[in-house]
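To whoever picks this up:

The parser on our side crashed when reading a file containing two proteins. I've narrowed it down to the boundary between the first structure block and the second sequence. Both blocks are reproduced below exactly, byte for byte. First block:
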Amino acid sequence: MDSVARQERSKFVRRMPKAQLHVHLEGSIRAQTLLELAARRRVDLPARDARGIERWLRYRDFDQFLEVYLTISRCLRDPEDFQLATRAFLEECARENILYTEVHFTISTHIANGANGAEVAEALAETVAAGEKDLGVILRWIPDIVRNVAFERADQTLEWALDHRHRYVVALGLSGKEGHSAQPFREHFAVAAREGLHRTVHAGEQCGAGSVWDALELCGAERIGHGFRSVEDQNLLEVLIARGVPLELCPASNVALGLVASLAEHPLLEIHSAGVPWSLSSDDPALFHTSLTDEFESVADLLDLDVQGLANLSTAALEHAFSPDAEKRALRQRFRDSFADLGVDPAD
């Protein structure tokens, strides 16, 4: 692809409508906002300016990443902290033309740090409603059970999710260290299913295909967070295709944490070629020095996608969303109108 064509494609990526299904609130907080939150909560960060924070956000391994993540989480306690972080995230979505996003966050960690769960839910709902009205960005929440913390926090997360379904909660998630089995949380996900909540599970990231099988069979996962190690089991790939279970791929995250040596070595091409449904997300964009736009640019190079391929990939995320039918129909129309303005029909 020559430089002119690349520039035109880059312009298209920036302007096209997008949806994102795997991003964490705590990992989306950019350096300047984090410094403001840390000052409010008197959390001692290892840097006093944005450049220093950027240097801090470099990781040897997943354990160091978790330490950073938990430090950031301590900066969120009062309702206005969550409002500041969420509003900043919504404004970033608007700049990237992300019209719809589903956002993970670990409510049990924040409650353990002193937050009031009901007050947080109310504050988040107010900010989401305002963001939809002011910015045109639709945000929905996925509270995560964390595999490797006290078991009672799983009960707390499920209870919070069910209590606040009317406040933009669409699913129950499972995150944390994959070395801890999903088995203890089987009933939590069964309850979520019975109560009408969707289910998505982080799996096939730190551990192999067996982790994805557990997500499917133990948790009834409708989507798999990451899941790139599914390529280790051809039978699993066939099951994902047959059941229509999409992967939420986050390549920059996998490279930043050393789980994949480089983008060129990421099994994304193999997944794409096999016909497994997938969408693209940024996971923790502030922590991995990326954005959804950056992810699309990188994947366009890796898969040699033209604007039609990019439009199809963007639309796939919307189709995999846990958005209710009426809302999704309206979003489809917004996507069609936006792509029409760009001279592309993703249905072609």
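<<boundary where parser fails>>
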Amino acid sequence: MPGPDPPAARRTPRADARRNRERILALAKEAFTHSGPQISLDELARQAGVGAGTLYRHFPTRGDLLEAVYREEVERLVAAEVRLAEALPPIEALRAWLLLFVDYIATKQIVAAALETLLCGPSSVFEASGVRITGAIEALVRRAVRGGDLRSDLDPIDLLRALIGVANVASGPDWPANARRLVEILLAGARPAGTAAALPASAE
């Protein structure tokens, strides 16, 4: 009679189950962002190429799926800080991260409101994310300041506030495009005195 699976095997999900989960999350993020939180979960399962039972095994409720989408976005945003810093010059790493932050805002706008409605109040899922996101942008800004790309008195949080502000006051679906242009304006305005750069052609 075969013995029980070793601990490592018990802890590691099957590859196909992991791929199913990742595919569901990717499609859910897109659907929530473009169509709102009341999307049909059965239709989402169909688009992901899985049965409804598979979706509900991973995410028993709509709230579980919304929370998982949000957690995935936070992890992606935080992990990007290290990845971008290793691959790009400091100012380019910061620019790329801020563009990802615009995408994060779009998801959070849908997920946060829906979760607060479903859970009758703010969810604890949001409590730790702010600290982690703040730490990521502070590290990116410090590198850009040390490299001479940004003025030393720049408050990293002001960059986030500006982008969140655009999202909060925008009245149309094109606010992400406005926010991406604002990234370029903010970085150009944060250059050290005497070194202000022109906006890239893509931002004009």
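After patching the parser it read the second block fine. The domain at 1-60 is CATH 1.10.10.60 (Arc Repressor Mutant, subunit A). The two ends are 70 Å apart (CA to CA).
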